Structure formats: C-alpha cells, structure tokens
Amino acid sequence: MNRLPSRAGSLLLLACLAGGGAMVWFGLQKVGDPVAFLKAIREYGLVPSAWPLAMNLLAVWIPAIEVLGGLLLILGVWRRAVASTLALMLVLFSGAVVLRAIGLHQDLGGAFCDVQFDCGCGTGEVYICTKLIENSIMLLCCAYAAASKIVRPLSLGR
Amino acid sequence: MSHILLQAVLFLALAALAGVAGNAVHPGGLDLCREYFLADQPPGPPDDGGGPPSPWQMIQLPEAQAWWESSWRPDSGSWDSDNGIYFLDARRRASFDSGHLPGAFLADPWDKEKEDIFDPGFVNELQGAFAVIVYCHGGECDDSKSVAMKLVYTHQIPAELVYIFEGGFEEWQAAGLPVETE
Fold first, then answer.
1. How do B105-106 and B85-89 pair as beta strands?
2. In this prediction, does ipTM exceed 0.90?
3. pLDDT of B96-148, one tens digit each?
4. How many CB atoms lie within 10 A of CB A81?
5. What's this model's pTM, rounded to 2 decimal places?
6. How far is A35 from chain B (nearest CA, A)?
7. How far apart are CA A115 and CA A127, in angstroms?
8. Domains: count for chain A
9. Is position A119 within any domain?
10. CB distance from A86 to chain B under 8 Å?
11. In chain B, N or C: fewer CB atoms in 10 Å?
12. Contact (CB<8Å) B8/A81
C-alpha cells in the first residue's frame, strides 16, 4: 500500500534535490570553462605551480566531483557517502574562500561584506557574504543528507 | 561506517575517471601534462645561470596604436614586411574570431591541440622581427605574459624585442580603433 513520505523523508528528499541540484549547476559552470577554473585554482595557491599535472588534474577533478556527486545525491545513490564527501569539500572550499577574502579585505579595507571577487565558483565575481550564505545552505543540505539514516523517498539506492 | 567510506572512495575514483574522460573530449579542455603558468617560475636567463628573467617591456595604447598604424596597410590588408612588427593575440580562439586587432596572429596558450603554439617557420620569422607585441583582454589578464615567456625562454626571441600591450583588446576596442573578425 502506497504511503505519503513522512515529514523527515520529505525534508531529506528536499535537501538532496536542493543540494544536489546546486552542486550540478555549479559544477557545470566550471566544466564549461576549464581554463577559467584552472586560473582560479592558481589564484588560491593551494597547489604549487611547480606541480602542473596536480593543478591540471584538480581543475578537471573538482567539477566532476560536483556534477557526479550532485547527480548521485538527486538519485539517492550512495547518498550518505556522497553527501559526506560534498559536505567536507564545501567546508574546505569555504575556508579557502574566507582566507582569500580576508587577504583582499586587508588590502582594500572597507566592510568585509563589500569584498567582491571571482572565487572560481563558476559564477564570476561574487560578494563574499552572499557566497558564504550560498555555501552554508548547500552545506546544511549535504550535512542533513549525510546524517539522516532513514530511507529516502524516491531513491534509486541507499 | 566502513561501507560509507568505501562508497566515498569509489565515488571520488569515478569522479576522477569522469573528469579525465570529459576533459579529453571537451573542445576547450586542458592538456593535463602542460605547464601553463610558466610566468610563475621563470627560468633564469641562460647566460648567467639564474636570477630574474630579462623583463619584456610594457607598452600602452598610444604606442601600440602608433606601431600598428606604421605597419598595417589597410588597403591591402597586410603588414608592411619591411617594418618587422608583429602583433600576437593571446586570447582564446573564440574571442579572437569574434574580434582582434587587424593583422594580429592567434597565439592561444591554452590550445590543447597544439603541442607548441608557434610553428617553427613562424618562430624563424619572429627571430628577425623588430618588435613582437603581445596582448590579451587587458586588465588582470596575464595570458600575454605566458606567451611572452614562451617567446623568450622556449624560442629564444630576444626579450628586448618583446612588448606587452597592457590595455589589451578591451582598451583597443574602447578607443574605437579598427577591429577585424574572422
């Protein structure tokens, strides 16, 4: 007998669709222009430019993680593992974005939320506070999808 | 817990495969083995065994315009071969095709189809140049520096012949100067 999903199930479904959809969208922006994303990675200085292969691989790997992870989250396949990985990535990326914004803020002065730069997120120049709010919402979705142990409605896997 | 970890590892491995495969078929993809940011770690000049590279010179719009006007023959649509002035466009092909300085040569440092962005015959021509002016979009664009690095350190074009037009195509276009499309 068919039953309507529980409130927790609906919330989980919503978190997966919203978090996964956002991940796919941001990932596709990066896939569309690999050169721009490679330049953004270089700006963060996370990988020494003496390791070109590592930097180039990262530039094709990260967007693939976002697109594939977003799709798996939407489909509900390997949900907890994928959501945990995406949540961890979001924490690391948000940390890197904040550090870069602090550096720019020290150089430029003014209000912290007025700091605007291309964070390499695929959407061009953004205000730091707007970006952090976006990332926090995605992080909440991924963290909820990772933590929830119930079976998700409309799921192709577990 | 362990199966979640295993799934996460599998997911990351699949994403790596998908990323590399997608990049291979992407028309604007990366050459994974290429060192794109030569300007980050300049090799020292060969004669003194190290130290900072010989700097190319930065030029502004009036100088770029004067050189272009002195060499470009609009009536024939060709360069005055006696002057030996070359303009290299270091933007992507799509940008180049939608508009560039008339007579400029495309030198896209991100073109993964070409092992080297310069043909040997063209390098020979450049070695006898009076000036090689490289530009990209302008502003914070640094692709012109990548091309200048390749010219000087890969192809031994004397650094004193290499100039970077700092304002780039955006400044040229904003000044209402002639633009050629493919």
1. parallel
2. yes
3. 999 999 999 999 988 877 767 788 888 888 888 899 999 999 877 888 988 99
4. 23
5. 0.79
6. 7
7. 6
8. 1
9. yes
10. no
11. N
12. yes
Give the integer Cα–Cα distance in Å for A82 and A68: 9
Tokens of A91: 């924490």
Burial A50-80 (b: 16+ CB within 10 A, else e): eebebbbbbbbbbbbbbbbbbbbbbbbbbbb
Top CATH class, B34-174? alpha beta
Contacts of B4 in chain A (CB under 8 A): 80-81, 84
**What values do phi and psi take at B164, rounded to 5?**
-115, 120
Structural domain spans, chain B: 1-30, 34-174
- Give me the residue from B4, B23, B41 closest to A34, CB to CB: B23
Size of the A and B interface in Cβ pairs below 8 Å = 90
Paired sense of beta strands B162-165 and B131-135, if any = parallel
Q: Is the Cα torsion angle B72, B75, B77, B78 positive or negative in sign?
A: negative
Taking Cα atoms as reference points, which of B140, B139, B132 lies closest to residue B170?
A: B139
Mind listing the pLDDT tens digit for each residue in B2-28? 899 999 999 999 999 999 999 999 988
* Minimum-distance CB partner of A72 among B11, B23, B40: B11
Based on its alpha-carbon atoms, the radius of gyration of chain A, rounded to whole angstroms, reads: 17
Q: Is residue A75 part of a domain?
A: yes
